[in-house]
Design brief:
alpha/beta; 8-stranded mixed sheet; 30% helix; binds adenosine-5'-monophosphate-propyl ester
């Protein structure tokens, strides 16, 4: 059994033991899973290459641990409870036994279509059960999944397919999301027309049934390929360090990178963190509202909960459809016990007024979770009072795509809470703060750059196809440390508060975007010479996107120019990356070495020009005045 900590004293003891003997601690956690062969060595690592091996030589299959392992004990318990976008339609459940059969059928269908161990399969799908089923099917046959959030554009999808040289795309015909009817298959067609030569098959799930273009040599219907398959499927025996999945995420430079997670360590850590942070008890109904296109959905809708034998809710829709009471209606309807969402959703619902949340019976809730961005005090209090009725602990969980699982968070009902603090590290996690030179800042009541100084099982192993980029981004900044890119504060009792990114990454509605990535997209507009993008505080989104744009020639119609830029960004990345504000400028403040002074741009974007600091060293100090006077409010 995975250890489930029960009180603060036990947490302190377990934490101390996990740091004193990490190998012993994680070996004990790993022993509750089904291994075809035990590992030879629990941990071998260096942060220089980096080279990280957990449970080396161990053989397993994560889908067997999510499914087969539970059949005797909870085969008839609901594993996935799917709530559709349309509240008038019935919800759908899969017991562990049914899910096992469905996954085996999908796995056999993938094999029949030429997918085998090590092949990459791309997913571009709405939140339907078939997405979870097909992910587990990939895992079962040792194929590597790469899920692309279905809000990304054809161009972004094509970039990711090419980077991972995927052999297959799994998609839907259409996606009903809120009141929108979104063509999914046609975006895939468009992406594949951009030279994705590695794709042999497109497996299309019929979701809405509306007609789609068909490429007979390439496209296959899910309902023709999957249901006729056998309901058992021998699992591929994987090495603990074989790749499980790739998930693309944005950094401060260049194109998004494919973060790689491997089988054994990811399995052990997602299960352990799920059981402990959420304090899941048998029979509980757990709901994480994330999209499986992001890491939260991978780790805490699919893998963590299923490994723990939980009932996990999967929701197709959006928080405001058909009205802003939808989340609470679902909590009431399914008697949800653990509810995990993002601050941006909380703020959006808070802005709609209390009547929506007061309409429903939320007495089943035991605990509430928050993830993806700093939660502001006002949102924390509203969540606590209106949703949790002052009786549900709130776990503010800090982690990243790269960390695979939650690293710093209260354990629900155990760790004393402080609003807006992620509080304490999970067992096995050794966070430190460093200064700009990489010197560790010891003691308490201090602030610095957040690093982790010892490996944990679910950490990234590489960035797909470019190990050097992984080294440069995460391990080169400070020798022997994993650098998170976040700044944090440690209070007098050792509790962590995450301040936010210290690099050129912005967090818009919990979606992570690189400013360079948005700039590259804007620069695709033929009339744009140069651009600079920064984040600014936004009431609902957390951060909004502010773009400064230099046009090649005088702009006759500024509104049209702005609209064209938004269209270009939607085309290149997706609507989530559209700037909220675009200021047309004649120049950008630059240092004598040609570097854009983003500090000044951030200040102007946030509406705070009181103290811009010394601008006299700029190459073009006169531009600051122009930028300030033209600031978009
Ligand atoms: O800046 C931190 C912020 O989100 C970043 C990671 O984004 P992503 O890889 O997309 O993963 C999001 C879901 C795990 C972090 O570097 N972040 C995440 N959780 C929190 C947070 N910031 C403050 N508080 C959090 N609880």
């Amino acid at each position: 059994m995975t250890l489930q900590i029960k009180n603060l004293e036990e947490y302190q003891q377990v934490y101390a033991a996990s740091v004193a003997d990490p190998e012993g601690f994680w070996a004990a956690q790993a022993s509750s899973f089904h291994w075809h062969k035990p590992w030879d060595k629990v941990l071998e690592w260096n942060f220089t290459d980096p080279d990280i091996n957990w449970f080396k030589g161990g053989k397993l299959n994560i889908s067997e641990n999510c499914l087969d392992r539970h059949l005797d004990t909870r085969g008839d318990q609901v594993a996935i409870l799917w709530e559709p976008n349309d509240p008038e339609k019935p919800h759908v459940t899969y017991t562990y036994r049914e899910l096992h059969a469905a996954v085996c059928q999908a796995a056999n269908a993938l094999r029949a279509n030429g997918i085998s161990k090590g092949d990459r399969v791309c997913f571009y799908m709405p939140m339907v059960p078939e997405l979870a089923i097909a992910l587990l099917a990939c895992a079962r046959i040792g194929a590597i999944h790469s899920v692309v959030f279905a809000g990304f554009s054809a161009q972004a999808l094509a970039d990711r397919i090419k980077d991972a040289t995927c052999k297959m795309v799994v998609c839907s015909d259409y996606n009903d999301r809120g009141a929108k009817h979104i063509p999914v298959k046609s975006v895939v067609d468009e992406a594949l027309a951009m030279g994705c030569d590695s794709i042999e098959t497109v497996l299309v799930h019929r979701n809405t049934g509306d007609s789609v273009q068909w490429n007979p040599g390439r496209d296959k219907w899910w309902h023709e390929e999957v249901p006729g398959q056998a309901t058992s499927c021998p699992a591929e025996v994987m090495d603990a360090e074989d790749m499980l999945f790739i998930l693309y995420t944005s950094g401060s430079t260049g194109k998004p990178k494919g973060v790689v997670h491997t089988c054994g360590g990811y399995m052990v850590y997602t299960c352990f963190s799920f059981m402990n942070v959420f304090q899941y008890q048998p029979g509980d109904i757990y709901w994480c509202t994330a999209d499986i296109g992001w890491i939260t959905g991978h780790s805490y809708i699919v893998y963590g909960p299923l490994l723990a034998g939980a009932t996990t809710v999967m929701f197709e829709g959006v928080p405001t459809y058909p009205d802003p009471g939808r989340f609470w209606e679902i909590c009431d309807k399914h008697q949800v016990n653990q509810f995990y969402t993002a601050p941006t959703a909380i703020r959006a619902l808070m802005a709609q007024g209390d009547q929506w949340v007061e309409k429903y019976d939320l007495s089943s809730l035991h605990m509430l979770g928050s993830v993806g961005e700093p939660i502001n005090e006002e949102a924390w209090k509203w969540y606590n009072e209106k949703v949790g009725k002052n009786r549900c602990p709130i776990v503010d969980t800090w982690w990243q795509t790269e960390t695979g699982g939650i690293l710093i968070s209260p354990l629900a009902g155990i760790t004393p809470l402080i609003p807006c603090f992620a509080t304490l590290p999970l067992p096995g996690i050794q966070p430190i703060l460093v200064d700009a030179e990489g010197q560790e800042i010891e003691g308490n009541d201090v602030e610095g750059l957040l690093c982790i100084k010892f490996p944990w099982p679910s950490m990234l192993r590489t960035t797909y196809g470019d190990h050097e980029r992984c080294r440069q981004t995460y391990f080169a900044p400070f020798p022997n440390r994993y650098f998170t890119g976040d700044g944090a504060r440690r209070d007098k009792n050792g509790n962590y508060r995450i301040i936010g990114r210290v690099d050129d990454v912005i967090n818009v509605s919990g979606h992570r975007l690189g400013t360079a990535e948005v700039e590259n997209a804007i620069n695709q507009h033929p009339g744009v010479v140069e651009s600079a993008v920064v984040g600014f505080p936004h009431d609902i989104k957390g951060q909004g996107i502010y773009a400064y744009v230099i046009a090649g020639s005088p702009v006759a119609d500024e509104d049209l120019f702005r609209k064209e830029i938004l269209d270009v960004v939607s085309r290149e990345i997706g609507p989530i990356a559209k700037p909220d504000k675009i200021q047309i400028v004649s120049g950008l403040p630059k240092t004598r070495s040609g570097k854009i002074m983003r500090r000044i741009l951030r200040k102007v974007a946030s509406g705070d020009t009181s103290n811009l600091g010394d601008v006299s060293t700029l190459l073009n100090p006169e531009i600051v005045e122009e930028i300030m006077s033209g600031a978009q409010s």
